[in-house]
């Protein structure tokens, strides 16, 4: 698990290898990840958008950006958290993800970004 705190918002990420399959004659490696967003600040915040950079061992980079996470824009009160699970496909058994969430502080009405720490994706069969 990796964790990082930015402006009172703690991001924790756990990953798992889901398996591999062929798609259009190319092997794909499926990974799942669970993110917990914990509000350790004194203000309520809302997650409005996400920005991901997904890298694989073949130097491919995919950028994914959009509103919310899995169709939601959660409001997180002080001391509360929001957890969700998602996934990605890689063309190699190793990779990494990193990015940020765009949030708004309801007390100050200011927008701010929260860093998602870089986390590794590794197929279980390829790990020493």
TrEMBL record:
Q: Which SUPFAM superfamilies match?
A: ApaG-like (SSF110069)
Q: Specify the ApaG domain's residue ranges.
A: 3-128
One Pfam annotation reads DUF525
Tell me which positions the record assigns to the signal sequence.
none
Q: From what superkingdom does this record's organism come?
A: Bacteria
The record, for PANTHER family, names:
OS05G0170800 PROTEIN (PTHR47191)
Name-wise, this protein is: Cobalt transporter
Q: Which organism is it from?
A: Neotamlana nanhaiensis
């Amino acid at each position: 698990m990796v964790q990082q705190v930015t402006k009172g918002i703690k991001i924790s990420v756990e990953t798992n290898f889901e398996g591999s399959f062929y798609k259009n004659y190319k092997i794909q490696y499926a990974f799942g990840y669970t993110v917990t967003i914990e509000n350790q600040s004194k203000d309520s915040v809302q997650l409005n958008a996400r920005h991901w950079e997904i890298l694989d061992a073949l130097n491919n980079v995919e950028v994914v950006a959009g509103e919310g996470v899995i169709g939601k824009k959660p409001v997180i009160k002080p001391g509360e958290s929001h957890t969700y699970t998602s996934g990605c496909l890689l063309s190699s058994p190793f990779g990494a993800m990193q990015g940020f969430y765009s949030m708004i502080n309801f007390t100050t009405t200011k927008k701010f970004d929260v860093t998602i720490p870089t986390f590794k994706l590794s197929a279980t069969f390829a790990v020493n």
